[in-house]
Amino acid sequence: MKIKEITIYGFGRWIDQTFSFSNSNMITLLGDNESGKTTLHQFILYMLFGMTKKKCDFYRPKTSSKLGGRMIIDHPCEGTIWIERLDAAQVQYFADDGEERDEAWFRELLGNMNAEAFQSIYSFSSQDLAVFQNMKESDINELLLSIGLTGSAAVYKVEKKLQSELQKQFKPSGTKPVINEKLSELRAMDQQLGESKRLEKSYKDQIEQIDTLEKKHKLKKEQIAQKNEQLAKEQLMEKILPIRKEIHHVSEELQGLADVRNFPLDNQEQIKTLHIDINNLNREFASQQDTLDTYTKKKQDLEIASLQNEEKEQLNHLLNQKAEITLIRERQRTIEQDYSYKAREITEMIQEKQIHITTDELERQELPFYLEKEWGSLRKEQENIQEKLAGNVQKNEQLLQEKSRMEEEQKNLNQELLAEAHIKELNQRIDAYKQKNRADESQQKNMSQILNKMIREKKKQGRMLVIIGAVIALAGALTGFAADVPWLYLISLAVVAGVYYFRLVQLQDIKELNQQRKGLQPEYPGQEIDVTEAEYQEAKEILEEQQKLQRRLHSLEDRLQHIRSQFEENEAVRFDLTKQQNRLEENIVDQQNHFSVLQDVDVLYWQDIYHLLQKLIQLTNEKQSLKKELDRVTERIYEFSDQVKNWFRTNGLANQTTLEEMMLTLEDIQQQEQQHQHELQQLTQFIKDVQNKLMVLKQKRNRYTEERDKLLKASGTESEEIYFEKQTRKERYNKLYERLEELKERLQILIPEEWQQELADEPLEAENYYKNRKELELALADYEEDLERLKNELAEQRLRIEQLESEEDISLQMHQLAMEKEELEDLVRNWAVQKTALRMLEAAKNQFKDKYLALVIETAQIYFKEITANQYDTIYAPAAEKSFQVENSKKKQRFYVEELSQGTKDQLYISLRFAINEVMAKSSGLPFFMDDAFVHFDMNRTERMHKVLERLAEEQQVILFTCRRELAEAANGDIIHLSI
Amino acid sequence: MDSAVTFIHAADLHLDSLFKGLRHVPANIFKEIQESTFTALNHLIDEAINHNVDFVLLAGDLYDHESQSLKAQIRLRRAFERLDEQNIDVFLSYGNHDFMKGDSFDVEYPDNVHIFSEETVTYIPFYKNGEAAAAIYGFSYENRAVYENKSAEYKVAAGEYPFHIAMLHGSVATNTEHDSYAPFQIKDLLNKGMDYWALGHIHKRQQLHSNPPVIYPGNIQGRHRKETGEKGCYLIHLSKHNIEQTFLPLQAIRYEEVEVDIRECLTPSHVEKSIMKQLPANSVPSLLYLKIIAKENEEFTPDEILIQELIEVINESVSEAFPWQYIYHYRMAVEEEPAWLEDSFLKDILEEADTSFIQEGLNEIYHHRNARKFLSSLSDEEEQAVKENAYQLLNVLLRRERTE
């Protein structure tokens, strides 16, 4: 494959430039530094492999925005191929026939090589050499190898990376790496799950265990049932024991009654009936006989109890009078009532009118007709006297009043009269004025007159009083004597005492008055008084006045005198009246003495009392007539009563207290008597009836007896007693037989069939069964306990199984473990991929080494030998820690790369590249690019180098970039000068 | 006589069996996943009761001996008890995963459960209202495997049975699959006089024939990446002239494989939104396996670390949604420019690296005393995958190193 022409539309510094390469395989592009050699080199790579956008931008021309170009290639098989690229994306391939082809087609032509690989193999620049030299010497062999293999250090780096990555993931005996961690986690989970599983696995055993338990449970239940049956049997035996015993007894007794087994009971009923009938008849006969006896006895008793005929008559006679007596008694009661009524009326009247009179007095009292008038006149007289007396007293009082009025007036006048001294003074004044002293004497006389008068008066009063007191006392005493009232004496005494005292006081007064009168002897003090005219007049007037007063006083005195005389007159009248009164009173007392009724009764009411008495006396008379009547009636009753009492005594009856009771008793007796008679008649009839009945019964009994005897004979028994005995035994026999049958039946009902035979033969002792039963019960209790225990165990077991069944954690753990496993698988898968990748890489390296390195080294050896002019003839590939070695051909000395000179190092490198190119790219025949690679070559070696290049150019196109003309010229090929 | 039977046909319950390919699942979701086989079973029972079926057929693999759990059998018993309460019979046969001689727990099932307890085909009559309504045929695996063709053993029973229903746990014989159990040819089944063939063993729902119906109901709950979509049972109504079949989904959680294209996305947030948008909308919780198609762009090339972070973010949001979703795994395919060199020396090694070479390298761990217990040995495919992944990794790494 050859590049024929390149046209640059724009790339780096190159714009619109075309380079045509000649047919020669050796093309040298000569140009100075900065002449665009490397850019051109890059353009060719761009044309072949395209470029990333970033790189495109780097090469975009500064002056033109157009990036791209065209390249014409001459391919040995496909002919001329056109490639046109614009920017990073646009590319067109045209085949020889002018048709456009796709990229795959073009890649195929390039041997599916990418830019990196191409560069590693076919593209070689001075930069590579520089890198080669700058590299650490010890790494050089690795690098050489990597260049040799893929042309890159990538493999190496990838390897390192994978290794460290794998280390992080897993170490066979580590714990930290991810997978190791996961593994230990899983192991723990698995262990736990294993344990859970083991537990779960026990489910089967648990089920088996429950089966065993259930079987045991069932067995135990059966055993219990069996024991229960036995127990039931024993209990039954115990229960039926009494029945069995009874059967035994009954059988024995039946044996004893075997003789009457065939005794006939055909006429049993008849005989029995007859027997009963006869008995009944006998009983009835006896009872009738008894009745007869009773009746007879009763009749005799009654006959004794009845009264004799005489007495009966008397009784009748008495009772016949009963009506009359009753009437009389009625009358008696009425009269008594009337009598007591009258008596009560009288008494009531007396009480009502408060009359002092008894009934006896009333009966004796006589009331002559004149009394009425007499008592009436007495009354009038008394009224008259009293009236007069009242008038007298009134008049007396009037006088007394008049007198006291006058005395009052007199007193007033006396007061108005000036004192003697004053008058005297006045007189003196007058006397003095008018010879004075004149009226004094008269004055004094006047005064003593007054006093005298007063004394007299007092004396008169005292006398008066004594007289009145004496009269009163005397009257009191008289009255007290007349009326026989003792307290009146005391009053009269008191009056006497009072009068006496009053008299004493008065006498005292009189004495004093006398002394006063004596003391009135005038003493005239001789004093001189000056009297004026006025004073005189005044005194005169006063004195005149005084005189007037004196005159009036005198007239008053006269009138007083008159009244006093009247007073005395009056007193005389009164005295007469008192006398009259006394006479009247005597009269009254007379009457009162005669009629005690009148005592204490005012005369005023005497007439009324008269009328009252009159009425009372009339009543008393009526009462007395009633009394008489009553006495007569009572007499009659007594008479009758005596008769009755007599009868009672005769008949030996106790006397009753009252006649009525006795009458009642009599009536009762009569009634009883009648009853007795009646009963007697009845009894007689009864006795007759009973006797008849007895006759009938006797006949009947005879008939029955005959009949019975006939029947007895028929049954072959001599007497009724024997028959009945046999009958009883036969009945007993039958009854027992029935009982036996019944008991047997009961036994059959009680005992289940299968046990009957077995139980029938059991002994009859009770203790056996009891003992057996107790033993069985004990055994049963044990069994029940066992059963309970089994039940509990079963329940526990069921619970355990239930727990297992509800345990869902195991499933969860399982799933979790599965998930963890998945994760582990994931990790391992990832690890496996990386591990495989690493191993593949290593394997590839080894393979490559094995396959190509020897070839490459061999080929390189030839180049190296040639270039170094046989100085070195052998290259040793790096092994273990050692790098490339070269061997001196003559001395057979070996040198390490780092021991070589720079030129030789470069030559070794170039030899290796040539070898790689030759070995690896032989088939594809792609152009080989060299860019300023011979810097450190001496002339000799440069020439040799060129020879090698010439040989290389025989096989493939070699494009050489250089700045050294001699080098360019040394190469036998077309030289294109690069100049812009 | 208008006899008819209604029943549910299910198989491969694989109760409490382990799920594959799940890791780092949040606790709540994990719990739901762990319970999902039981939830599906409950759904099955609910459907049986709701449709008032006569009986339920369970054609093998009710649980796994491998992931043995008492819980599985207890829950099964409870489920049967629920059916028993409704007087629904159960006919069951054991398959290769729950074979009879396996180490199962002796859990006793209620009386409504009829078990085919022999390895030869027998039949159990089904009585409805006192009359024979159907004859159910079947057999159980005594051991882990049955290799002979059992179809020859199915013979219609003597007696008046309106319907004949056969249960068979096995797979169609093919020349390729080496471990096909109880292999049969479809034509073998058709002339047996059966009205319905209730098959089990194959987890993917399929109908091999329509009259008489020969049906694999599939398993009732997907358990790994490949058991995607709806999972459930068949409700069958057989009458004299008519056969009705209805598929009833039972799964508690769906496994789904989702392809998401983020080739047009230029920023991480863009990627997140795009993925969210492309997630399917299911009515039940789903476990998603994403196949992400990406592309190297000039500006933005999504790498593994970024995608992993984004998936975590997305999971955080969708796993809280209702119904939740969870991306349990993803694979990213980057559409790369073909501009990478097929390193000739790597290419050589790809050819050189054979099984023994790979195994040799991995023995370090697969033979490790602690690790081997938890690791299943790699299958050929897995080995191949490891190899390819390794090769790819190397290429990527080398390329990355070289470009830097």
Can you describe this structure?
The complex is a heterodimer of chains A (980) and B (404). Among the domains of chain A are: 1-113 and 926-932 and 956-980, Rossmann fold, CATH 3.40.50; 182-256 and 734-806; 322-356 and 609-650; 441-531. Chain A is 74% helix and 7% strand. Chain A contains 26 helices and 14 strands. Chain A has helices at residues 37-49, 53-59, 103-109, 115-122, 126-134, 140-149, 154-169, 178-256, 268-305, 309-320, 322-353, 359-364, 371-416, 420-434, 439-483, 486-519, 533-594, 606-650, 659-715, 720-750, 753-760, 766-806, 809-867, 902-920, 939-955, 965-970; strands at 2-11, 14-20, 26-30, 68-75, 79-86, 90-94, 100-101, 123-125, 872-876, 885-888, 894-896, 928-931, 958-962, 974-977. Chain A has a six-stranded antiparallel sheet. In chain A, strands 8-12-13-3-14 form a five-stranded parallel sheet, with helices on both faces. In chain A, β5 and β6 (90-94) form a beta hairpin. In chain A, α8 packs antiparallel against α23 (809-867). Chain A is elongated, with a radius of gyration of 100 Å. Chain A starts with a strand and ends with a strand. Chain B folds into three domains: 4-249, Purple Acid Phosphatase, chain A, domain 2; 253-335, Rossmann fold; 340-404, no CATH class. Chain B is elongated, with a radius of gyration of 25 Å. Chain B: This is DNA repair exonuclease.
